Amino acid sequence: MHIKVGTRGSKLALAQTNSVIEALKKVAPEIEAEICVIRTSGDIMQDVSLAQIGGQGVFVKEIEEALLARSIDLAVHSMKDVPGETPEGLIFAAVMKREDVRDVLVSRGNVKMEFMPKGAKIGTGSLRRAAQIKAMLPDVSIMPLRGNIDTRLKKIETENLTGVILAAAGMKRMGYLEKITQYLPIELMLPAVGQGALGLEIRVQDTQLSELCAKMNDEQTAAEVAAERAYLRALGGGCRLPIAAYGLLEGKRLTLEGILTVPNGSTMIRDKVWGEIGQAEELGKKLADLILEKGGKRLLDLMC
Q: Quick check: is 103 catalytic?
């Protein structure tokens, strides 16, 4: 069985894809996998902010188009890049075991967030990260940042940044744990929807591949991410307001926490719900309703 696996071409994306192929060969040794690198609009337009070129979806659209065109058979995505809605004809056959969901700080001189000087320049291309940093430290300056992990780390020197904010999962997958200054606690920096998780997307009709991918599905991660994505969809995930959510399954109890905020962090609405593992979709909708009732609808009406 020969399959073509579609992925972005960054070092991190290729490392993630190779790890998926290794896992796939463990459940199906007969598979031959060919990696197909696909340049997405998010990769091509490096000099423009993500918000300007469409936010969510800019790293997956072309890969999903290749799946539908049968140019590839399997797509490997970082779930935090995936929009709330999946195109007709495609499904996620598996969500693999999650890495650390937290964000991390890498700073000049290993200065931790609580000791940042006034006017410190913090680099990030994420509206979600920027808003939560400004809520913590109103006096710091947020510097727009694009590019792969190596590029962003180099900009600490080339752009004279005090530090940059990155995902712990990406740093681990790249073998860069020793570069981390500080892991930012969930209480202060709620992660992106799907952060730390890899999703395997295929065509609906490819049942044989679906059965193989299902063997790599992690039930805990799948439930957590399903709740987060339901929250994103219920808020209208195309909006450019910063949205964050974190699902956590402990035993049979599934907790979902989420925020909706304005870009400068001055207004942030946060709440939490909980229920059973099978209630992921309902929890996402319930949390969105609570956020909307607490002022989120007004924010959406004003900003979206």
A: no
